[in-house]
What we know:
heterodimer, A: alpha+beta, Alpha-Beta Plaits, 4-stranded antiparallel sheet, about 10% strand, B: alpha/beta, 7 helices
Amino acid sequence: MVGISFxxxxxxxxxxxxxxxWLSVATTVIMTMTLLIVLFLFFAxxxxxxxxxxxEQKVDLSVTFTDSASxxxxxxxxxxxxxxxxxxxxxxxTSEQALAIFRQRNQDKPFIEESLAELEENxxxxxxxxxxxxxxxxxxxxxxxxxxxxxxxxxxxxxxDSRAVIDRLMTIILAIxxxxxxxxxxxxxxxxxxxxxxxxxxxxxxxxxxxxxHLVGASRWFIRGPFVLESILVALLAVAVAxxxxxxxxxxxxxxxxxFFFESHADSTSFDIxxxxxxxxxxILGLQVVLAAGLAIFSxxxxxxxxxxx
Amino acid sequence: xxxxxxxxxxxxDGCPALDDVSLKIQTGDFVSIVGQSGAGKSTMLKLISAExxxxxxxxxxxxxxxxxxxxxxxxxLRRQIGxxxxxxxxxxxxxxxxxxxxxxxxxxxASREISETVxxxxxxxxxxxxxxxxxxxxxxxxxxxxxxxRALAYKPQILLADEPTxxxxxxxxxxxVQLLIKINKLGTTVLLATHNDDxxxxxxxxxxxxxxxxxxxxxxxxxxxx
Lengths: 310, 226
């Protein structure tokens, strides 16, 4: 009995969907757009926080050695810096290693190779990259290394205060969140209004059937079910379309995003947003279904309550 | 059995449709309800099928107090009461067979039960030949027979007929009345609200006459008198 009723309610819901096909398509499109905006916000937030984390972790302090600095002097300085409590790690890049890295990065530029060949000596100095335990320690560390007693070994201390970059990133992430939330709210309201009117029109086009259903003793579930189920069908379709758009888009954008935000930092671990989405597909899909079906049920129940009184 | 006890019904405009009506209708009775337009005939039928609720009093149908029925109980009540209207209320895009089957579908009957029952009902109302016809291909009398067939889909204990001959000529009207008599003989209680004096006089059954919401006459083997 329940099974038969469900099949018939489902059949009626499908009929509702097809009878007002253009309205159903419009509702699906708006619902899909809403889901895509929410997905964009979610992924932008995850990716932004990863970039932020990466910026915090990147090498902010580098030291260029003088040409006259001996290996012993460099080794002694390395030991001294490594022993500091505010230092997490130290990496020394010899002038040969620096040249190799430089050549690798410019392998598609033949004129660079030609210029290097004309030089008799390696023009790149040896250097040291220092990673602090926390970004706030870099400023003091740079001050210490600029001391006169290191002048024979250190030619230059390169320090870029990353706090300004971090603040700027935070501002961008916050702005995306705020604008995204406003756009989401607008789309949620649109979804509710359009879904409400879709159900209202469906009720109007089925009014004869509904009258007769009442007359012959159809249950409330049998009369109301198709309209609520139709809205859930629209929601599920929107989830499918949104996922079909979002995942290929992430796959296409991920390599470029990684190259732009992560590759320039020598010690960074790259973050693949597509892989992140794939690893959590079930949770992401579930959240989409909850959001879309929740909105659909909410709007259709209001319409049904309003226009299908006994 | 249907028992009306001191039933009154006033609509929102304050106009009383029924005023302190008390009566009993035995199971298997055939009762004609007559009266001028606005006398309260249709209201009486709507109160039985719970389309309207009384302002005062109680209506008991086989143990159900319809006056106090819960909303979720109404579908169960309506599956025991068949209703036929003057304007047929058929679905234009469904065939005769589908119109009758639709009533059973919405009530949750199994497909097998529907396919076995509907041909029997169509035979009862003599519409087997028109099973595949759409309402616009049927005469008024045939449409009303489809409506009656649909009302019978659940083998109701009570059949309410609200001006079923109102849109029909004399020949078709008599055809419908004959069908109602046949259904009544099968054990169904029939309540016929009508303006048709020829039909009421020919029936020689119980006649309840209403005037301005009051029962002014209730006679067995009665005639149409206003």
